[in-house]
Amino acid sequence: MPPGVATVARTALTERRPEWIRSLAAGPPSIGRTHHPEGGRVAVPTGVGGRIHGVLEICWPTPLVAQPPAVVRQFEALAELCAHTLEIHSPSSSLTLDGPPPRTVLSELTDLADSLCDPALVLIPQVDDTGHLTDFRIHHVNHRFRDPAGRSRSTVDGALLLEAYPLAADESGLFSHLERVYATGEPFRAGHMTLTALVDQVPLSSVAEVSMTRHGDSVLLIWRIEDEMARLANLLEHAQRLGRIGGFEENFVTGEITWNSQLFALYGRAESDGPAPVEDLRAHAHPDDAVAIGRFLRTVLHHRKPASAAFRLLRPDGVTRHIRVVAEPVVDIDDSLLAVRGAYQDVSAQHWTEVALAATRDQLAHSEQQSAERNRLALQLQQAIMPSTAAPLDAPGLRTAVRYRPAETDHLVGGDWYDAVVLPSKHILLSVGDVAGHGIEAATSMVVLRNALRGLAVTGAGPAQLLSWLNSVAHHLSDSVTATAVCALYDPFRRVLRWARAGHLPPVLVRDGQATTLPLLKGLLLGAASDITYQEAEMRLEIGDTLLMYTDGLVERRDRSMEESLKHLLMTASAKKTTLDQRLDHLLTYSRSDTDDDTCIISIEVM
User: Fold this and answer.
1) What pTM was computed for the model?
2) Confidence (pLDDT) at 410
3) What is the pLDDT of residues 299-317, one digit of tens each?
4) Is the dihedral of CA 264, 268, 274, 277 positive or negative?
5) Whether 19 and 36 share a structural domain
């Protein structure tokens, strides 16, 4: 029977019951139709023990009339006789119904399963005393086998199918399809079938591509469970579709241009027309956007730098879309342009939203007033929490001084902090830190970290351990907080300083009129990742030494590297001053920073 054609015999085979056709003139195609075009037909499946071997088709030269029950029973008996005849003359006639297939066929099928790249199972049918199919024995599983429940091959190999996968009988429909394949010999394939397995009596479902074929008296079952890479690729495709994003890559060596289907849809361009070069972008844009597009192309193609631009795309169907394009160059070691890759995004909805928002200036003015109020609140909060700069602590053999310079503009209120406190162990905790960002969120995050460090220091742990715990606070217990910090513990009796840093600038030591930075210990900033280990160092201070700990607001410049800024800081700190307070005032006065950021300085002088 030709596959995929709804013949009389195939209909009977599919329905697994007799198919009566009164006349072929208005019926499906069948064998011998040209001889008796008006004749009737009956097709009866021929099977034994639940397995169908073929279809018996009986022809009439004239239209078929209703047959008496006795004749119908004769047709069924004739079909059963044909089935027994086929069974007797089949290659497996020497075996019983519940016996295994011939060794040669089974061996060939096992070798076939092992040669496949997908998980495969060789199944042997199990029939009862009446000849009805009850289950399949898993005779062999190949080396590629992947169980939906995560079990090993040895656990599944040799088991009954319904014992290994009890839910296959009702939920997934797997067993019913296997039963039909075994009975009819017709292969079955499904692009997406749910395979359900029990893991500790909990159903675990997987989606797989399934194929079933009969070979002799056994069935080969193949499944390919959707892997994580395919699922993520499918997820990315849907994300691009929902975000109206189209990607492209243009190879300037081979001249090949690649667009995804979403980009063709954004352009309103048929895929048969092919993609357009990025240099032709002006031809598809509104004339008023030529300057912006020219600047974008010059940055990417000439200066070899990433760039973005917003423009109006003129589609062939007359529709104008507001598009944002982002691209980056791919260069070799000689800075030669190899390719350009990037993405287009349809931001039309965002554009019209911005237009609508521009019309509501009253609401914007109200928002600006609220923002100013928040900045004022953040500044008041910061001023209320920061310790007083006068006489921060009283420690034997030690003079301390601190300075805090707030940002010059209210909207730049940040999260800089400093702290100096005598612990119960009589050691002195010294710390400075800088929370990323500005505003009330940065100020409140500063409070959390500063107070957490004070509480953790009471445990007697060293600076590295304190920063590790503080990182856990920033990473797990706060809302996306990142910060830099330096933590030090000073023993005034032994004059020993232990310190560690988390992405912060190193402290400065002034000894004998010469200022140097302490070693740059390893330590990632707080909140960037979990379970970070920090490096710790120890040094002995001498009488007359001065230690400075500060935030980047003291040195950072927009037009200078950090190395140059630190060099100027060391030169300024080396100036001879009579008192510690004069030294700090001198540092603030001659600071060259221009970022208008908060500045904290804490200093100790060994006496």
Assistant:
1) 0.41
2) 55
3) 999 899 999 999 999 998 8
4) negative
5) yes
